[in-house]
């Protein structure tokens, strides 16, 4: 347990705003890019789940706190942990860490498992719960 998933990227030119720093909404793009890579690493690729499963796991909440500016070309290590693992939902925590190990942004997303046809909440697939378990933060067990 207590594993951390890492997804390294560089701030792209098109993501920078008029102040010369990462436009705040792009943090969520970086979270999502890391999330897609995380699911791939768990052997549960998002594109296959969207095509083949009888459930969906939409995002129902997102938040972020910005600690330091991110500039064009800056390296960001997007770290993912599971902050909460419930019966029908999970919360992921994201930490964007820069080259000097400084925290740039922290955020969370909450995902709720729903039946594809009715959008009613349903239990997370056991396979997904087991795949997420090693990433659960120890204070949340």
What does this structure look like?
This protein is of the alpha+beta class and 141 residues long. The chain has a single domain (5-140), classed as Hotdog Thioesterase (Thiol Ester Dehydrase, Chain A), CATH 3.10.129. Helix content is 21%, strand content 34%. The protein is built from three helices and seven strands. The strands form two sheets. A five-stranded antiparallel β-sheet has the order 1-4-5-6-3, with helices on one face. A two-stranded antiparallel ribbon has the order 2-7. A hairpin with a 3-residue loop joins strand 4 (75-85) and strand 5.
Give a concise summary:
The protein has 141 residues and is of the alpha+beta class. It is built from 3 helices and 7 strands; from the N terminus they run βααββββββα.
SSE sequence, one letter per element: EHHEEEEEEH
Using the alpha-carbon principal axes, give the shape. globular
Helix content: 10-25%
* CATH architecture name: Roll
CATH topology heading: Thiol Ester Dehydrase, Chain A
Rg value: 16 Å
Key words describing this protein structure:
Thiol Ester Dehydrase, Chain A; 141 residues; two-stranded antiparallel ribbon; 3 helices; globular; alpha+beta
């Amino acid at each position: 347990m207590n594993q951390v998933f890492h997804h390294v990227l560089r701030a792209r030119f098109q993501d920078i705003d008029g102040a010369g720093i990462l436009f705040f909404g792009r943090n969520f793009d970086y979270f999502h890019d890391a999330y897609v890579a995380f699911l791939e690493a768990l052997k549960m690729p998002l594109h296959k789940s969207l095509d083949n499963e009888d459930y969906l796991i939409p995002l129902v909440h997102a938040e972020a706190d910005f600690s330091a500016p991110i500039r064009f070309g800056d390296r960001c290590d997007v770290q993912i942990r599971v902050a909460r693992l419930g019966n029908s939902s999970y919360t992921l925590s994201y930490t964007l860490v820069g080259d000097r190990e400084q925290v740039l942004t922290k955020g969370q997303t909450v995902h709720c498992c729903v039946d594809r046809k009715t959008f009613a909440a349903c239990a997370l697939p056991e396979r997904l719960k087991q795949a997420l378990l090693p990433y659960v933060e120890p204070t949340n067990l």
